[in-house]
Structure to design on (231 residues):
């Protein structure tokens, strides 16, 4: 149980274009989803937290107009990287929790490797 | 500021050679400490959650323990398939409420040689 999928698993795009990444909880309803970014040999850095049907909460230093997050249903969240630049190249990972609070375990997707040329 | 420090950064073991990974943390109001395993190019895989000092949890060759300042992941008689990066994370409350976010350490890269 507690499976999260991401699509695509990797994407290469040109500088200035936008890329959408999907995150789906396959066997549970994710009331909260999280988006992380991981650079090589670095740990996961939280970008934003989103609750179904409401606006995402972004971490300090993360541009909300550049990284658009939509959590339209209890099983789907999307991250759109707008006007991508080479410095946005990274490994993007989402996670979901089933509960609305407390010490809910986060289950992670397999990640999406974004390369911006 | 909440911080998580893992040591060592990298660890090489021979198959069958037991050892421990350390996770030291400072957090205001620990709600839970999590251990994950991450294979190259993959997302983290959940291993354990620990909630209070003195708690221990086991899964196959892994045992996690927790004190008020640190957690240990003990690996008994490891096998090559245990090779991965092991991540420790603490759960601290969000200032605006809702589900609490995780703060991750940088991980320990474990290599088990046959």
């Amino acid at each position: 149980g507690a499976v999260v999928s991401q699509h695509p698993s990797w994407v290469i795009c040109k500088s200035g274009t936008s890329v959408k990444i999907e995150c789906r909880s396959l066997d549970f309803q994710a009331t909260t989803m999280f988006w992380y970014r991981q650079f090589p040999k670095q740990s996961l850095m939280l970008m934003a937290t989103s609750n179904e049907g409401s606006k995402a909460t972004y971490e300090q230093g993360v541009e909300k107009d550049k990284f658009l997050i939509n959590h339209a249903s209890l099983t789907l969240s999307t991250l759109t990287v707008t006007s991508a630049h080479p410095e946005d190249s990274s490994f993007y990972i989402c996670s979901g929790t089933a509960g609305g609070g407390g010490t809910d375990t986060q289950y992670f997707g397999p990640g999406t490797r974004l390369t911006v040329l | 500021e909440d911080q998580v420090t893992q040591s060592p950064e990298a660890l090489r073991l021979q198959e069958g050679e037991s050892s421990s990974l350390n996770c030291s943390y400072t957090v205001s109001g620990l709600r839970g400490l999590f251990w994950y395993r991450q294979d190259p190019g993959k997302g983290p895989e959940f291993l354990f959650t620990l909630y209070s000092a003195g708690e221990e949890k086991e899964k196959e060759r892994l045992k996690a323990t927790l004190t008020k300042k640190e957690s240990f992941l003990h690996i008994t008689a490891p096998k090559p398939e245990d090779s991965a990066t092991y991540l420790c994370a603490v759960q601290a409350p969000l200032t605006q409420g809702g589900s609490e976010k995780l703060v991750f350490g940088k991980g320990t890269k474990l290599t088990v040689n046959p």
